[in-house]
Write a structure and sequence with these properties.
It is a single chain. The chain is mainly beta. The protein is built from 1 helix and 24 strands. The strands form 6 sheets. A 4-stranded antiparallel beta sheet has the order 1-2-3-4, with no helix packed on it. It has a 4-stranded antiparallel beta sheet with strand order 5-6-7-8, with no helix packed on it. Strand 11 and strand 12 form a beta hairpin. The N terminus is likely disordered.
Length: 286
């Protein structure tokens, strides 16, 4: 095996994203946790599997630009967590923000002009916005709590993120109005909720909730607070649910995949009725 990661901390498990749909819904960019962390690209029917950049260091947390011509992702290839951008046509990669801080969790605004991310540049994990045009950084939060994994709402007005009281504490999900900085707590759980993402219409979110050791996929209506469990499977760890652009499917990865070698992860999708299908079990493992 080319490289095997050491056991990841609980914090790193809960602050990463895996699969993101291309803007036209035809492809998924993804990576596997608990394994070799490369970024892969595959058609939604499982064909045309590719390894985007087989770098010897960890590459993870991809996000697709709204134009569909590039990806941003987090890597430790320069010694600390930094956000990079890859041109999908040329596969050329550049560091997006040059700093000595730990910057991660990058996510594009719907107009592609800004990137929201989490960073330790203020002393603990806070949220920041990077303007791609004028190269400036502005603070979105500056608190004593820990904010992670920001996700821009489809209308560009709000940020969905995870907040915990300390670095390894249980987390809940919040929505912040960017203009007013007013925040609203949308989940309350004993073990925490994480790996959250917006629906294309911005009226719902999907996320992972751990119930008695089972990593479940939940969907929550933001206004009514009605929620439902979409995927629950004992003995398998589910990670990183993310909605398709048409709202008909949610993609996710599972640590142990049926019909594959035990312990190898695989990429799945599920429809809104809870019917699952395997997308790809290919990887760069040796």
């Amino acid at each position: 095996m080319r490289r095997i990661l050491c056991a990841l901390s609980f914090l790193s498990i809960l602050t990463t994203y895996a699969q993101v749909w291309s803007p036209d819904g035809s492809q998924l960019a993804f990576f596997y946790i608990h394994a070799i962390e490369d970024i892969y690209l595959v058609n939604t029917d499982g064909s045309n599997f590719q390894v985007l950049d087989q770098h010897p260091e960890r590459d993870f947390m991809p996000d697709w630009s709204p134009e569909g011509n590039s990806l941003i992702f987090t890597s430790v290839r320069d010694g600390n967590h930094q956000i990079y951008r890859m041109d999908l046509a040329t596969r050329e990669t550049e560091r997006l923000i040059v700093s000595d801080d730990e910057d991660t969790d990058g996510h594009f605004s719907s107009d592609g002009k800004k990137v929201v991310f989490s960073s330790n540049r203020s002393g603990n994990s806070d949220l920041f916005i990077y303007d791609l045009e004028d190269k400036t950084i502005s603070a979105l939060t500056q608190t004593s709590t820990f904010e992670y994994t920001p996700r821009w709402s489809p209308d560009g007005k709000k940020i969905l993120y995870k907040m915990a009281s300390d670095e390894f504490g249980a987390s809940d999900l919040y929505v912040m109005d960017i203009k007013t900085r007013q925040k609203e707590q949308v989940t309350i759980g004993q073990r925490g909720e994480f790996h959250q993402n917006w629906s294309p219409g911005g009226d719902k979110i999907c996320y992972v909730q751990v119930t008695e050791g089972v990593f479940e996929l939940w969907v929550l209506d933001i206004k009514t607070r009605e929620k439902q469990v979409l995927v629950k499977k004992e003995g398998y760890q589910l990670f990183y649910p993310n909605w398709s652009p048409d709202g008909q499917f949610i993609a996710f990865t599972r640590d142990l995949s049926e019909g594959q070698q035990e312990g190898y992860p695989a990429l799945y999708m599920v429809n809104m009725e809870g019917k699952e299908s395997l997308v790809s079990a290919e990887n760069s493992f040796e």
